[in-house]
Specification:
With 548 residues, the protein is of the alpha/beta class. It is built from 16 helices and 26 strands. Helix 13 runs parallel beside helix 14 and helix 14 packs parallel to helix 15. The longest helix is centred in the last third of the chain and has 17 residues.
Amino acid sequence: MNRKAIINGREYTLLEIVPSLDGGQALLAADMGVLSATTAFGKTVIGAYLIAQRKVNTLVLVQSSALLEQWKSSLEQFLNIHEVLPELPKKRGRKKKRHLIGQIGSGKNTRSGIVDIATMQSLLKGEEKTVKSFVAEYGMVIVDECHHVAAFTFETVLKAVEAKYVYGLSATPVRKDGHHPIIFMQCGPVRYLVDAKSQAEKRSFSHIVIPRFTRMRLPDANRIQDMYAGVIENHNRNGLLVSDTLKLVQEGRTPILLTERKEHAVLLANQLSDQVKHVFLLIGSDKQKDKREKLTALQNMPDDEDVVVVATGKYIGEGFDAPRLDTLLLAMPISWKGTLAQYAGRLHRNYEGKQEVRIYDYVDINVPTLERMYHKRLKGYAELGYQVKFGAADQSISVIYDGHSSMLPFEQDLDDAVRSVVIVSPYLQKGRIVKLLPPLQKAVASGVEIAIHTRTAESGKLANQESVCEAIEMMRQTGIVVHTHKELNQRYAVVDESVVWYGGVDFLAFGRKDTDVLRFKNPDIAGEFLSLSGHTESEQLVMEDVSM
């Protein structure tokens, strides 16, 4: 089978360009299907391979102008097309230069009918938004980032497609709104799935996430929008972001600060612009011309020049390509793993000298809603193959467990305790307490001081109140100190003032597989968690001060 490509006059095997063309082969085995692969896997090259193998006129559908430019550049690089453009009706005036790879959208219409790349919006006409007739004239349609198919415009365009071959490419075909079955109806089932963790293992650099616990409190914020406003306005939190960024620049790294709000991006960029020579502010309200100019300037920046990028998440979505970036500061909380994967993917391009990519994650432990968002991100990091450290100089690697796999190692830590154990678990189950009593009794008998923090029985479901009361009494009879609270949200455990378990797992209940928890050994951070227990029974646990 011919796996060749002509690039600037030189013949390459495609295996030199893409780590594996198994995904392309899997798609070619059927007329329809989806390839799900992480950022930097080489989806545009696989698209070029499909075009070369199918040998039919092709329409590539993209979501944004940035993706359009990226595809056009890639196809011009990877394809050597031997076709003659059809004659057009003669018109007066200057003749426009025509290309075998046409563009529809982003202010241009150079459709060739051979290989064309189009934004979805450019394929609709009139107030009724009907699909232009030529969409039905292609033999193959490739939908990039096909998880957008469930959106109204995407689905409308796909319904007008009459191509024999329809393929979807995406980093995440699962949609947050649960509408992904529409993707499979329009593009076919997933034919090839690239596991993000295994892909991370193949990269030439390590993947590290560094949690940064904030002391922000928002007692009056009940709506998520109020919480986001509090994030933007919090001086100390923004100061931590700026301070971390400046340290990273001093290390010679190229960081990107990502937020979900334009005003937050502007604020952070203004604080950094006086201290860093080149600060690129990338926000959605920029004109297309300005976006292209900024991205070109960023890509052409010499490596010895200090660079910081401050951007909104929507701006650096699909199509953003800046391989030099090696550090992401997550300036505003997000929860969905698909968004996290997309943002992390901005760091995964190969670049000379790149040995480690880092994500700095700002954990708002005193704001329950935002803290739960971190628990969801923790699961996402595990799936992406990231390891946890607590600072660049930290040589230890922390472990992320799910709710099931954490049970045995947690019990082993209880067995190994020699001085103290503090467990904060809002919910408990009698069956779990019965299972934990032997190691807890053994620890108490050995002189280990054990303190439990949990919610009052009355704060739970009526049907469970009796068993909760019985479980609490069982622990107290064993010599364990049990504190009950009307309100309690955080979940953590500290063993011997050094080993910390923190995440979404209730340690006194049977863990769910869809929750995740982090285990690490760090006496300084353990001390910070222990400080959380200094409260009255009517108060929610709060973080008094965290500085790492």
